[in-house]
């Protein structure tokens, strides 16, 4: 018995030393070199100001690699919010600093009964690089008008937030700037997309 104890006493520290040098079985998600800050101008958004504030707060609470902040001047904004009388539409990003994104907050969707904060958060999702998924459930922000007017969820789900974090994980230095597209969200069921 004393021989076994002596062998175990010698092996345990050796095994622990070896295990201490191993990498963990799973690693944490890689953080970007720096958080990407996107600035916006809401000077032409009129009655949408409160919806914009809440939608931006929802996105900033959900993601880690990008932060949305008001621009110091309209000319320095990476994207703009503006009130329109038509249908909501936005530039399909991801938009990066120095970009020229546009969110048109169309009154027609609100007139049909859709929630203004959900519309604003949904269109902001396009700026961050998320496409529409109208067949998704209400819990999915990018399902847009799909779940109907009773859906007022204005927060991205975990998968949407994760995709935005992936879109901005490389930071600004290695940002891929895709061809600019404008997604027109016809909240009554029709969808048009045009490229620029």
From TrEMBL:
Family annotation (Pfam families): Peptidase_M7 (PF02031)
Protein name: Extracellular small neutral protease
Broad class of the protein's primary localization: secreted
Signal peptide: 1-25
Catalytic activity of the protein: Hydrolyzes proteins with a preference for Tyr or Phe in the P1' position. Has no action on amino-acid p-nitroanilides
Cofactor(s) annotated in UniProt: Zn(2+)
UniProt keyword annotations, A-Z: Disulfide bond, Hydrolase, Metal-binding, Metalloprotease, Protease, Secreted, Signal, Zinc
Record keyword Chaperone present: no
Protein family: Belongs to the peptidase M7 family.
Organism: Streptomyces violascens
The enzyme's E.C. designation: 3.4.24.77
UniProt-annotated location(s): Secreted
């Amino acid at each position: 018995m004393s021989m076994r104890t002596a062998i175990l006493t010698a092996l345990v520290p050796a095994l622990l030393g070896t295990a201490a040098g191993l990498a963990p079985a799973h690693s944490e998600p890689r953080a970007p070199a720096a958080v990407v800050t996107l600035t916006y101008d809401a000077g032409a958004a009129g009655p949408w100001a409160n919806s914009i504030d809440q939608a931006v707060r929802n996105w900033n609470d959900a993601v880690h690699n990008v932060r949305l902040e008001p621009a110091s001047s309209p000319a320095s904004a990476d994207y703009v919010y503006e009130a329109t009388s038509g249908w909501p539409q936005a530039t399909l990003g991801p938009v990066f600093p120095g970009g020229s994104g546009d969110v048109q907050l169309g009154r027609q969707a609100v007139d049909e009964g859709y929630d203004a904060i959900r519309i604003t958060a949904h269109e902001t999702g396009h700026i961050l690089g998320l496409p529409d998924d109208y067949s998704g459930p209400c819990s999915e922000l990018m399902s847009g008008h799909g779940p109907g007017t009773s859906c007022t969820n204005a927060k991205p789900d975990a998968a949407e937030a994760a995709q935005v974090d992936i879109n901005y994980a490389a930071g600004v230095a290695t940002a891929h700037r895709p061809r600019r597209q404008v997604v027109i969200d016809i909240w009554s069921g029709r969808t048009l997309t045009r490229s620029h």
